[in-house]
Write a structure and sequence with these properties.
- The structure is a single chain.
- By secondary structure, this protein is α+β, with helices and mostly antiparallel strands.
- 26% of the residues lie in helices and 23% in strands.
- The strands form four sheets. Strands 3, 10, 15, 16, 17, 18, 19, 20, 21, 22 and 23 form an eleven-stranded antiparallel beta sheet that branches. A seven-stranded antiparallel beta sheet has the order 2-6-7-8-14-11-12.
- Strand 11 and strand 12 (517-518) form a beta hairpin.
- Helix 3 (71-79) packs across helix 6.
Length: 822
């Protein structure tokens, strides 16, 4: 539902979280990551299954889409340019080159975990195609080079001329570097790395503040963080300098707008604004530069922005980006649920920011946000079988959201493709003679302390229970400190701010033992339980976290969540979904002091039948479900409010919309004033609905929900996007003939950002006794107003079918929230 400008904006990156052991040592972060190359996640565990699914389903799917959608063809044509190529038709988006880069990155991580010569050879063949398209000076941007005389219209007539707008030349560079460094680290081959270095050198030469250079900054950020990574990989400071230039000059060049965080210099910014993915990438780049240069102005700025997000703009799922208008952050405390955008790529960006801030500051609070995002708002973006994807991740739905097998603008699927296999690099870190244990998942690792090896392994069924066994498999380093993160949800705080708080009387605790005995230690100010000793081979640390079911309330300034509670267990946020409840979950009222019981559902019930054979590892696994007593509220036909006692079933949020589309809620009313009682049946709600463009969202026009005003996006709607300049229709067919005399419409109009506008005109018709369509007569008017009731009264007719016909504007589509008839 957006113009191309905002569709193309949704391209994204992933931070490869560690510097491989083969890399040249240069000045790095205060805390040293333990690279993905040093950690192996075990099969048949929560995350082992996800990595296996990436290997068997998601990455092969992404490569197949690169083939079928012409991504490789772009490079082949660029290697042999021609004035006959119509690039605008052949290449939908100027950033399409990044799909192969991102997929290679994910596949490289997988190669480290699952060596595969066939996959390695396939990647090499793709790199042959990519390398052949590179120009002699290193420039590699197929949107221009396929037909230099008539390039893609977003490219501009010359290099960098539209970089701050639509070209994405530097965005493409960023993803190239990210993929190239990962490929080098995983395989030792410089094939992709050398391609990326040549393009980076071209950029350093041509883009900057010096005379003769193009003084521009990235229109879509990522090059900043990627160039910092290239600096760490090569030791060449010019890449760090270029990254800092891109940040230093933001707010000083031609385009200055909140959408791309270019409204003012970055060191003056103190609020998260604009396109959430762009923002997260820029904030990650700021954290990189702050850590790698020690620039205190950058450190203060990124700390201020982080505070703003966590205090005022973070969803309980860890999602960021409240509105589809520019896929952007909203005002402070604006966190709607039904219309929450929470793009999958933005969740990945949120992980990047918090990871880097941990490496900078060493505080566990950043991993508390990272973990919340990881287990909820991030993995919700890909189905448990790896073959279905979400772009937005709302916290409430009435069936208008469906997982998709792919997208034309494929940034979220390809981003998930590369993020999940990188997870091993987020588990551990080292500072001086301390090892940080930040994530709890079954794995084996080899960690270096002062150049001496320590081997650790974890065994756990986390997040389903809170028991973690950490074993010292080998230790050549002698005495060191093991710093175990104690999650905020154990310490009684959902997030490190007052935005959310627990509302129950539960007081969970934790217990840590070494070789079966309690140890004398405590949680320090940084949030870690530190055990310092001369570790011996075979030493075992047993960690137990109580996993009580908790209810959470939002700050009362969050209007969308007033009077409501969300439910958590451990790091997982839960939701109610239609499939598990035989009543209208939208009308539910949670008890004031709810008690929960736990149950199980098989993983296999969330896997597509076509993929079950390939994903046998899910066969004997279960997910933990919750149940509690509740009530539903409804109005009967006489208008009397009635209640009904029900058993409310809940599933982890990441598992929703696997078994079909329907109602879903994360925030559940706990105060009567927050409830939405079911309304009696109406003519519209009882009718069969058909449209010129059928869609699962058609039912939304008869759900009884109307917008509060012209800017309300909190309720579902139906639209004819991307059709334009056409006449479209919807019909209601009643069970029996009814007399009607008026129709009321609430138009959906997302101007000035989106692609829908109020119609040029509309009419009402009815089907007569002979089955012919007739215009209603004596219509007082056909109002066309945004965000309010538009009622047409007419001469009463008796009919079994009524139609609304809509004339769409020349360059826009139309949509409607509601259509009622009386």
């Amino acid at each position: 539902m957006k113009k191309r400008f905002f569709i193309i904006a949704m391209a994204i990156t992933i931070f490869m979280p560690a510097i491989a052991q083969r890399e040249k040592h240069v000045g790095g972060y205060p805390i040293t990551p333990v690279p993905f190359t040093s950690v192996k996640v075990w099969n048949n565990t929560f995350w082992g299954q996800r990595l296996e699914t990436s290997r068997k389903v998601t990455i092969p799917l992404a490569f197949s889409k690169c083939e079928s959608e012409g991504r490789y063809k772009n490079f082949e044509r660029a290697a042999h340019p021609s004035p006959n190529y119509n690039v605008a038709e052949l290449m939908p988006y100027s950033f399409d080159d990044t799909d192969p880069y991102k997929t290679i990155e994910g596949a490289s991580y997988i190669l480290q975990t699952y060596p595969d010569e066939k996959l390695k050879a396939y990647i090499d063949s793709v790199l042959d195609i990519i390398g052949a398209a590179q120009e002699p000076d290193g420039y590699l941007y197929t949107a221009r080079t396929q037909n230099p005389q008539n390039p893609h219209p977003w490219s501009g007539s010359t290099r960098w001329s539209k970089e701050e707008d639509l070209s994405h030349e530097l965005y493409n560079l960023g993803h190239m570097i990210e993929g190239a460094v990962a490929h080098w680290q995983a395989t030792g081959s410089r094939k992709f790395l050398d391609i990326a270095i040549r393009y980076a050198d071209c950029v350093v030469k041509e883009v900057g503040p010096k005379p003769g250079q193009a003084c521009v900054v990235p229109g879509h950020q990522i090059a900043e963080m990627a160039l910092c990574k290239l600096y760490l990989a090569t030791g060449n400071k010019k890449y760090l300098d270029e990254a800092k230039f891109f940040l230093d000059y933001r707010g000083k060049t031609e385009i200055r707008q909140e959408y791309s965080q270019s409204h003012k210099p970055v060191i003056e910014q103190d609020e998260a604004v604009g396109h959430a993915v762009r923002a997260a990438y820029m904030y990650a780049g700021m954290a990189d530069v702050a850590a790698l240069t020690g620039d205190t102005a950058y450190i203060k700025a990124i700390d201020r922005i982080w505070d703003n997000i966590v205090d005022k703009k973070l969803y309980i799922t860890g999602g960021i980006g409240a509105t589809n208008n520019g896929e952007a952050f909203g005002p402070n405390y604006y966190l709607p649920n039904m219309s929450a955008y929470c793009e999958t790529c933005a969740a990945i960006g949120n992980v990047y920011v918090n990871y880097r801030l941990f490496l900078l500051h060493g505080d566990s609070k950043y991993y508390d946000i990272l973990e919340r995002t990881l287990y909820n708002g991030l993995i919700s973006g890909v189905s448990m079988d790896g073959g279905g994807f979400f772009y937005p991740n709302p916290l409430e739905s009435m069936g208008q959201h469906q997982r998709q097998a792919w997208f034309g603008c494929a940034c979220c699927p390809s981003n998930i493709c590369r993020f999940l296999p990188s997870l091993p690099g987020y588990i551990y870190a080292v500072r001086n003679r301390n090892i940080y244990v930040n994530l709890f998942l079954s794995n084996s690792s080899k960690i270096s302390i002062d150049g001496k090896n320590v081997s650790l392994s974890q065994e756990t069924n986390y997040p389903w229970n809170g028991d973690v066994k950490i074993k010292v498999d080998n230790n050549k380093a002698g005495k060191f400190g093991m710093k175990i993160r104690i999650p905020d949800w154990v310490k009684g705080q959902p997030v490190p701010s007052s935005l959310y708080s627990y509302s129950d009387a539960s007081r969970p605790s934790y217990k840590i033992m070494v070789n079966g005995r309690s140890v004398t230690a405590s949680v320090t100010a940084d949030g870690y339980y530190t055990i310092e000793r001369n570790w011996k081979k075979g030493d075992v640390v047993n960690v137990h976290f109580d996993m009580d079911v908790r209810t959470v309330r939002a700050d009362n300034k969050v209007e969308a969540d007033r009077g409501m509670a969300s439910v958590e267990r451990g790091p997982l946020v839960y939701c109610a979904e239609w499939r598990d409840n035989s009543f209208d979950i939208m009308s539910v009222l949670l008890n004031r002091e709810p008690k929960f019981s736990e149950g199980k559902l098989p993983y296999s019930s969330f896997i597509a039948d076509s993929l079950k054979t390939r994903l046998q590892q899910y066969r004997d696994q279960n997910i933990t479900t919750l149940a509690t007593d509740a009530q539903t509220l409804a109005y009967d036909n006489s208008g009397k409010l009635t209640t009904n006692n029900v058993k409310l079933e809940l599933i982890p949020y990441f598992a929703w919309c696997h078994r079909g589309s329907g109602n879903m809620k994360v925030w559940l009313p706990q105060d009567v004033k927050a409830t939405r009682p079911s309304a009696p049946a109406t003519l519209a709600s009882q009718a069969k609905i058909a449209s010129s463009t059928p869609s699962s969202s058609m039912r939304s026009i008869a759900d009884g929900l109307v917008p509060a005003d012209e800017n309300d996006r909190s309720i579902p709607y139906f639209h004819w996007w991307p059709k334009q300049n056409t006449t479209e229709w919807i019909t209601y067919t009643f069970p029996e003939a009814k007399q009607i005399q008026s129709a009321t419409v609430y138009w959906f109009d997302d101007q000035p950002w989106g692609g829908c506008k109020t119609p040029d005109s509309w009419t009402i018709q009815y089907k007569d006794a002979n089955g012919n369509w007739q215009n209603v007569e004596n219509v007082d008017s056909y109002p066309i107003k945004k965000g309010t009731a538009c009622t047409a009264n007419f001469k009463p007719v008796k009919t079994s079918e009524v139609k609304i016909s809509v004339k769409q504007p020349a360059k826009f589509s139309c949509g409607l929230f509601e259509w009622s008839v009386r």
